């Protein structure tokens, strides 16, 4: 049997700490509701929603603490695996409460989807503007037809009411801009928490977790290579946390100082979403709404910084530059460069596709600017947008789709398969080919100076098989639920790789409000599978996992 008392003890302490996190959006909601001038916040207020959520989180903490009061103080391997999954699922439930209680999203499943999308840094959203008949002012449905599948039309309703001028009745804000400021901050904060990993935060703030602490960190860290910066897992997590915070503050300052038209609130939310490679935005037109090449450049730079193995920063700070020269880093930079060039190349001379449409054609400079931004946005799994790439040539879209699966470096906040796994796969194939014509030679399989043993090599190969299986299974599931194949494949790439943007019905100008409840439920599962990189979840379905020792 699992040590449920110890699991409850840890969960109790974790959710007690998570209660303090909720104070940030609660304070923001109180400020805009009762302190700031009313014209600063015409959107619905959400102080009560966050207050009730805080009370719920404290109650959950108390319940777990009560049942875990006789915990052993030691967390074994099986308990660590189960604890990781529990933390993600229950945290998403609590995190969904502000969306639902504030009536931002009126369906519980939509609220849970939004919370899971934030925590897994996917960035896909259910927030969609409601549309009304101009004469009768009655709400009407939204229709979308894939031009490549003209016999399939999606019919759905928006999720967010517009903010109207009380005198004229004209729409002032719609979509995500009609949402409470505190709720918008909460969305970005969820991505920031999930980017470094709520389990890593758990390791930082809780007392020593015994023998399970290091394994808990390994279960949470992404990629096949779990490089520790310090000998102890808690010290490693604390070091990562400080670096993560420093990069976030740096980006916030740069965005605010270099763009006079960017409010501090926007700069904070963008930074929280960007360094975590999450992609939630506070504007309907995303990064394109700021109309600033400098802003785009800063966002692009920090996309890359969030996709680099965080241990390399510590090596650089300690002047150990020789440890930065690893194949994974070189492969990531090379892939990013080639991806930017290829996506941009096919745009030259094509009609520009801004979020509101375009009239001119892409010059090579404009093609490089928008093509590079979108290519890096999908490879780093950030999901920010500056153009309607769904109107781009198929060649550019195809390479963007490939970049979604490649992803960033191991040990970063980025999603995707990770470049280190592709490098290991290349070395395995090369090693196998050489053994065919040199069967007597003994060669070690290495990535940089680290030797890859047979167990790790088999794990990487298994990972590619798992990705292929779940991609095919997921596409079939979406198609059977009535979604066209193009949208289905883009959705699976979006969900499993935690990218947040896809193609066709799930394109850059649309939300995922068109999904059925079944597809929403599937999608939350894919997001969590991708964020925890499959193995942790799959272990729980093995009968042997639940057998007594």
Please give a structural write-up.
This protein has about 550 residues and is mainly alpha-helical. Helix content is about 55%, strand content about 5%. The chain has 19 helices and eight strands. A hairpin with a 7-residue loop joins strand 3 and strand 4 (about 155). The chain is globular and about 85 Å long. The termini are close together. Mean pLDDT is about 90; it is low at about 205-215.
Into which percent range does the helicity of residues fall? 55-70%
Strand portion, in percent? under 5%
SSE string:
HHHHEEEEEEHHHHHHHHHHHEEHHHH
Please give the alpha-carbon distance between the first and last residues.
7 Å
- Overall geometry: globular
Structural class: mainly alpha
Strand order of the largest sheet: 1-2
Mean pLDDT: 89
Q: Unreliable runs, pLDDT <50, ≥5 residues?
A: 204-214
Biggest beta-sheet profile: 2 strands, antiparallel
